[in-house]
Amino acid sequence: MIEKIGERTFDELIVSGRTALHTHAITLAAGAAVLKRGQLIGKSEAGAFGAIDGTYTEPYGILTEDVDLSKTTAAMVYVSGNFNAAAVIG
């Protein structure tokens, strides 16, 4: 019996290259937003993480998957790798 557990659509976020993919676990600022895979995450001067904007100005990583900030603030980000700039959000 074959069970379909999940499905991944290729979004072309990651492109082939010589740089290894590395991830890091972070805690995002809570809110009502849903951040999508590929969202550029920034770091504030206080060390907090959120979608890149006027508060989170120092680029830190790229979200590995969608995150609903009303339910969870834990997330994984890519901190190194080769990425398609057109697929990065922010």
Average of the residue pLDDT scores: 87
Strand order of the largest sheet: 1-7-5-3-4
Count the beta strands: 7
Shape: globular
Could you give the distance between the termini? 42 Å
Order of helices and strands: EEEEEEE
Ranges where pLDDT stays below 50 over 5 or more residues in a row are: none
Portion of residues in beta strands equals: 25-35%
C-alpha-based Rg, rounded: 14 Å
Derived structural class = mainly beta
Total DSSP helices: 0
Structure description:
By secondary structure, this protein is mainly β. The protein is built from no helices and seven strands. It has strands at 22-27, 34-35, 40-43, 49-51, 58-63, 67-68, 74-80. A five-stranded antiparallel beta sheet has the order 1-7-5-3-4, with no helix packed on it. It has a two-stranded antiparallel sheet with strand order 2-6. Strand 3 and strand 4 (49-51) form a beta hairpin. The N and C termini lie far apart (42 Å). The relative contact order is 0.32. The mean pLDDT is 87.
Features:
90 residues; 7 strands; five-stranded antiparallel β-sheet; single chain; 0% helix; two-stranded antiparallel ribbon
Produce a short descriptive summary:
The chain has 90 residues and is an all-beta fold.
